[in-house]
Q: What sequence folds into this?
């Protein structure tokens, strides 16, 4: 994406970029007995969506706390892991015994979190094996494990690669050691690099998170991190830093102990630089924030099936669960999570059921994921065309040159790519 004068001018369509879409777990209501019963009823029905799903057991422990982290994770302790894993399997089993899940098909098993790589290789394999035994998987399903370079040693990587793990996700964030230190990231950039090399040598696909607009981060430092990722031949999820209330980073910035983030212009320039460098290196922009050279990432079912497919997520604090109209997050406190599971209840913390109006808006958030909105499918499901439901929004975005709308589909344009979060918010409920 070249930044000539006219493109820079066009970038002023919004004052700042929205980096996250509407309908995230933060907005779900706390669970009520009525919605819980309706969810159980839904789970007792057959899955007729014809969509393939992702299974995501969540390991909610970390061995340190990154300064920007807002995830509900607990400090790692060996004594807590076994009771937690027992509860996690019990929760998985509760879902596996429902008619909905028995008539569902999964093409991804993802150990998410948190830091699942804190488990021993044997614990990981035991958990993955439990999922394989209790859930229906497609013939060529993929297994992914999330973790930190500090807890993925070579032996562990070798054992899980031999078992059949396809991808490891590592939260590298930056290869700049000074920034790593200031953000309390575990491990040095050199060791992150070594673990990535070890994983790639074993034939594992590696996906790293890289963050931009970090306090004190120069463009030079950002470009170095991008180039390093390209050199290491990894897939990259690129996130702009968001400072959440209550995080260590927010407190440090408020107290003047850390420089603030760059302004909206710097943030945009960093995104465009990443887009430019990655696409020139043969990467495709996929989903909301990924640059990938792996064809399968473009085809991922749980991505392409949004919002009708599903992510069955389990474990304390998991928050990306959605099964058709239901979206949920789990109880965050690990002890309370374990107790709730053993009481025989699903450990849900928040649960939201979408109406038709919500689902229509959610379908439009496919644009945020760089996916087309199928106009005729929209009509089949809701009895109206997108243009009839959202006439003002579609006309406005077309006029701004951010989307293209035809008889078959609506898509974001090249110019709309940088504003995909803002585009999604245009369709949100006011
Ligand atoms: S490793 Fe991930 S989940 Fe754990 S503290 Fe850091 S950002 Fe949060």
A:
């Amino acid at each position: 994406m070249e930044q000539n004068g006219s493109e820079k001018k066009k970038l002023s369509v919004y004052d700042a970029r929205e980096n996250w879409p509407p309908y995230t777990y933060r907005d779900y209501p706390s669970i009520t007995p009525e919605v819980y019963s309706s969810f159980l009823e839904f789970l007792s029905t057959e899955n007729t969506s014809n969509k393939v799903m992702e299974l995501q057991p969540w390991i909610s422990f970390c061995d340190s706390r990154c300064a920007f982290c807002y995830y509900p994770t607990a400090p790692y302790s060996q004594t807590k892991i076994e009771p937690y894993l027992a509860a996690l399997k019990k929760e998985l089993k509760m879902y596996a015994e429902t008619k909905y899940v028995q008539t569902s098909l999964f093409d991804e098993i993802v150990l998410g979190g948190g830091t699942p790589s804190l488990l021993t290789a044997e614990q990981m394999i035991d958990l993955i094996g439990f999922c394989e035994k209790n859930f229906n998987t497609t013939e060529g399903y993929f297994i992914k494990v999330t973790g930190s370079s500090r807890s993925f040693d070579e032996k562990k990587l070798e054992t899980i690669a031999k078992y059949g793990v396809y991808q490891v996700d590592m939260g590298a964030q930056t290869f700049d050691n000074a920034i790593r230190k200031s953000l309390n990231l575990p491990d040095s950039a050199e060791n992150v690099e070594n673990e990535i090399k070890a994983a790639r040598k074993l034939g594992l696909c590696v996906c790293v998170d890289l963050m931009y607009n970090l306090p004190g981060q120069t463009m030079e430092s950002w470009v170095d991190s991008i180039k390093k990722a390209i050199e290491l031949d990894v897939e990259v999820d690129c996130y702009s830093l968001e400072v959440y209330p209550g995080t260590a980073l927010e407190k440090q910035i408020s107290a003047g102990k850390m420089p603030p983030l760059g302004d909206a212009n710097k943030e945009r320039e960093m995104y465009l630089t990443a887009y430019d460098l990655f696409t020139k290196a043969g990467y495709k922009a996929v989903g909301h924030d990924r640059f990938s050279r792996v064809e399968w990432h473009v085809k991922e079912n749980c991505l392409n099936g949004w919002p009708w497919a599903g992510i069955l997520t389990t474990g304390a604090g998991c928050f990306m669960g959605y099964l058709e109209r239901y979206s949920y997050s789990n109880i965050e406190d690990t002890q309370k999570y374990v107790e709730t599971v053993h009481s025989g209840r699903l450990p849900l913390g928040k649960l939201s059921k979408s109406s038709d109006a919500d689902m229509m808006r959610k379908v439009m958030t496919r644009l945020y994921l760089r996916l087309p909105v199928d106009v005729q499918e929209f009509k089949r499901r809701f009895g109206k065309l997108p243009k009839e439901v959202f006439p003002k929004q579609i006309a406005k975005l077309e006029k701004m040159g951010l989307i293209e709308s035809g008889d078959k589909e609506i898509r974001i344009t090249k110019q709309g790519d940088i504003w995909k979060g803002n585009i999604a918010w245009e369709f949100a409920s006011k």
User: Anything to note?
Assistant: The CA atoms of residues 51 and 377 lie 14 Å apart. DSSP finds 19 helices and 17 strands in the chain. The chain has a mean pLDDT of 93.
